[in-house]
Amino acid sequence: MATRWFGAPVQRLEDPRLLRGRGNYVDDIDLPEMLHAAVLRSTQARARIVSIDASAAWSLPGVHLVLTAQDLGEVLEPSPLLVPHAALTQPRTQLPLARDTVRYVGEAVALVVADDRYIAEDALDLIDVEYESFPVVHSLEVASITDGPLVHDDVPGNVAAHLAQTVGDPDSVFASAPHVLHETLLIDRGAAMPMECRGIVARWDAQDSMLTCWISTQGPLPIRNGLAAIFHLPEHKVRVVAPDVGGGFGTKIMMFYPEEVLIPFVAMQLGRPVKWIEDRREHFISANQERSQLHEVEYAFDDAGILLAVRDTFLHDTGAYAPYGIIVPIITACTLPGPYRLRHYSSEFTVLYTNKVPVSPYRGAGRPQAVFVMERIMDRIASELHLDRLEVRARNFISPGEFPWDVGLVYQDGGPTKYDSGDYLAGLDKLKVLLDYDTFPALQAQARSEGRYLGIGVGAYVEGTGIGPYEGALVRVESDGRVFVSTGVTTQGQAHITTFAQIVADQLGIAPDDVMVSTGDTQAFNWGVGTYASRAATVAGSAIHIAAVKVREKAKMVAADLFEAAPEDIELADGKVFVRDAPHRALTLGQVAISSNPLRYAYGENARTLMSMKLAGPRPGPALPEERGGPGLEASGFYSPPHGSFASGIHGAIIEVDPVTCNVTFVKYAAVHDCGRVINPMVVEGQVHGGVAQGIGGAFFERLVYDEEGQIINASFMDYLLPTAAEVPSLLVDHVETPSPLNPLGVKGAGEAGVIPVPALFASAIDNALAPFGIRIREMPLHPSRLYELLRDAKDKPAL
Amino acid sequence: MKPPRFRYCSPRILDEALVLLDQYGEEIKILAGGQSFVPLLNMRLAAPAYIVDINHISELHYFETEPDYLAIGAIARQRQVERSVLVQEKHPLLVEVIKHIGHMQIRNRGTVVGSIAHADPAAELPALLTCLDGEVLAQSMHGERVIKAKDFFAGYLSTTLEAGELLTEVRFPWLARQAGWSFIEFARRAGDYALVGAMAVLTPALDDTCMSANIAYFGVAGSPIRARAVEQVLIGTQLDAHTLDAAAGAARDVVGEDMQDVHATVEYRRELASELTRRVLKQAWARREQLEGAQ
Known about the structure:
Chain A has 800 residues and is α+β, with helices and mostly antiparallel strands. Chain A contains 20 helices and 29 strands. Chain A has 3 domains: 31-138 and 192-286, Aldehyde Oxidoreductase, domain 3; 418-465 and 645-800, 2-Layer Sandwich (Aldehyde Oxidoreductase, domain 4); 468-639, Aldehyde Oxidoreductase, domain 4. With 295 residues, chain B is α+β, with helices and mostly antiparallel strands. Helices cover 35% and strands 23% of the residues of chain B. Chain B has 12 helices and 12 strands. In chain B, the strands form 3 sheets. Chain B has a 5-stranded antiparallel beta sheet with strand order 4-5-8-6-7. Chain B is globular and about 60 Å long. The relative contact order of chain B is 0.12. The chains are: A alpha+beta (800), B alpha+beta (295). Chains A and B meet through helix 3 and helix 20 of A and helix 12 of B.
């Protein structure tokens, strides 16, 4: 295989279009006769709907439809449970519109369709809903109160699920371990906040009995399949397209968000296209969130700093519903052991309903919590034993010779948590160089003598990526020599258009520019799942590779016939297909594509050139010999991984803390990342950069604050603080490449990685900077006012 | 996030705007830069029957030096004032303050006078006006009046402007030549409203003791606060360590009992007010010009 493009920092092919404002996002789609929808959302976190009076809304000029639950007929079904699990004994999912009970502020109660969004919002103000409110389950603490308030009347104790897993024999290890510690660690709520909120345009074409939906989603195929079932339409009569998507981060793969059913429903009912665009206020209260977990962890270690056993028990907040089952806490449980040789581990979690926005995976998906817990442990072992923090990690790392390493737990995909490859020490060594780790103590001492508090922190992680079940792709050479590729995954900023093109370009001897990649259009490719779990490059990328190899082999076969040569003597390079050592015996890839389709008529430049060449005539027999498997240079490929592949990384940062204002600034940030073979280093670095920025947000700026009534009191970008370029330091990124043996490309996922270790390293760095105060960070996210309290209560206080 | 229905008027001359204000009074909201008002409108937190857009009244587009102050007209953009070489030279404190307002794009549109009229207690410009004992000019069909800063701000997002009045000009007094100044705010991110902000203008006497002090805070109460108690501590001193401690201590009291929000507790704000006081005083004093004959 040629490796000209794979591994090269190819500029993003999508950028010229996007940067010129020529992207096509859902809100850019304007159809003739289109109407606009707005959603009335619950103002109460836990209440019974006593009555809804929509008569005033109905009579507002310009209003076409006002929908409440009772108008939905058979469409009023709870959305499907996406990932069932035996431990999820009380699954509850949401109705498209609340019928008689609301369970979080923001839950959809009614829908208005009007001439424009302004009128639709005016009409929302005219709908009178009478609520009878009840005490609110606004925290994990309240959710766990015996005989306390219940989110679902029929779910005792608010317990959705309970799962315990054990590896080895932690109990007996604890009984004889030299050191045992216990701590409580908390991670609070956060949200993805993609730049583009959710949005849908639905069009019903009665003449063609065809439903078309443009949705800002990460999973159009499952939505297509679901909508076909709900509306009793053949699957080929439902087209779901994810056009350009302005960020997803997990929050855009749900099935179904209420609007994804309601907007097609009203479009079909009214016979006119309908658009709904989620505004930012709605996004805060109706798009899925994540992160809240409360861990009680006990750990045992020996005098050399070797971690012997961990017992972790945690509560996981799933919000008002559990559409994604218990994926997030399972990932937490399986991620916690990280890069360390942990042979005795028990994990037990309880998933609790709360009167908050439902939880589903958000970039990192349970991993930042796990890494926070494990890395806090590593730091604590180091401080207890007066060892260097990196040395403790190095002593506990699984070594390269120990792969595949089976953690012993069942992963989110039902397969083993089995690390396929890795070299954690190599990453640590590179990080030391990037951070200038060995000279830091001198730098720190110098700063302290000037009254400045510098700290260094690290965070290491292993990330399960590239899970199944499968993805597929179609690769087809068009008659002009350009190559069309379609796949069921979507893209929302990850540069798949570029990396997929690189994979194809290598196989077919063309430039990536000549590859046209289609993602997320159910009419262009019929099979697949979606983009989540850092899996698109690994799973869809491998499928594309497999399809491209088939097309290459077919091109060789066709050319061999034309040149009366052996297929193994045919080569593909620079857009040409030629006989090795006889480059004058060459056709363009487009000409071979035309030849592979034995039509009586052919058009265009390539066809005319082909006619004028004295090539071998057709052989006797059918025009399309059976061994070619069909006309054209076209093939599909599918790839189904045996189990997830495990990427890894280690990040470190130097920060400065102002112990009076309690502000924290980043002085230096370095990340070493291993996602197996790198398709495009620039793209991977971009992913790491974005992830780290989001991680810094989640560690120090972003925080969803619910009050006791279940209201988010900072539901705007005034008060929910996304970090800007001014807050994010410039980043140093380096790579370790341990190829995955699980897929033909040797790649692992890179999408979520950047965000995962940031809370852990931030805590680590603050502890280190404020060591003279003797504080230990046990919660994330932090903010200056909270850090002020921690310092105020610190036992040791040096004079400032 | 779409505004409710409103009527839009775009007068070209001031008198026309004043007539509209006289006619519709309380039902009107003025649109200048729109940087605070338009979000409020879109979030339906404001629902005026009429919006009078003053952006096309060219006679309000000015800033001029007067003997005692810099006069800024109602639609002069923050960014224009910030970039003016004249203002940079003659009122560097104003330029420093403006640089902390939002981001460049916001300042391109936002007006100086609009920020004063909006009277956000966490905003920079109302605090500066308070600090310097500035004035505003309010005009109506029935005349005009000059209002002192201390008589203008009347609590959270409130002013003593009356229905029918338009705020047409804001006047920032010049600083004494020998005065030293400092402005520091503590914000979560670049461009955010401050959790606490402080500014100081210190004028030395011939014997190089502090002759006058103007200290103001924002983000600490329902209005910008002029801290006379802190100022009193400084007069006649040379800002020695003991004085700074006393001033920093006195500054804690400027923070209102109800100044608790998602970003900061009252106690934390007090700590910030205290520390920022220390920092602005040190910096302002260091920037003073020691008069001839001073020690």
